[in-house]
Amino acid sequence: MTTDDIRELFASFGPVDVRRMFGGAGLYADSTMFALEAGGELYLKVDDGFALDLAARGSVPFSYEAKGRRTIMSYWKVPESALDDGDDLAALARRALDIARAARRAKPASRGRRKAPAADKAAPAKRAKPAAGGH
Length: 135
Prior knowledge:
Blueprint lengths: L2 H7 L7 E5 L2 E6 L2 E7 L2 E5 L2 H9 L4 E6 L2 E9 L2 H4 L2 H21 L11 H4 L14
Antiparallel strand pairs: 1-2, 2-3, 3-4, 4-6, 5-6
């Protein structure tokens, strides 16, 4: 699926930024990834409730295998019927974007190792030598 194909599908939703990654693409709106494309299929970000709604429409979760383990992600396939109905896809995409924004707000602000302050890294201070003949 090309970038132009993706943008055309989401025309009723609004502008979509497509960023290629890992053999697929991340779909962004307002700098928030709300969907992905992999293997020519589109998947939307979900929470538990949205996953149930999509499952009822015949959708399945995105999963991949790496190092002998299957990983299931919080993205579910866009229902076939929505690919033929721009308004339906736009409504699903808006819901996915709201979920992605909420997930982003819920993440801790810092995602890396905490660095020690520079003073903690400095070599210990040397003791001053007592003056000759002094106390």
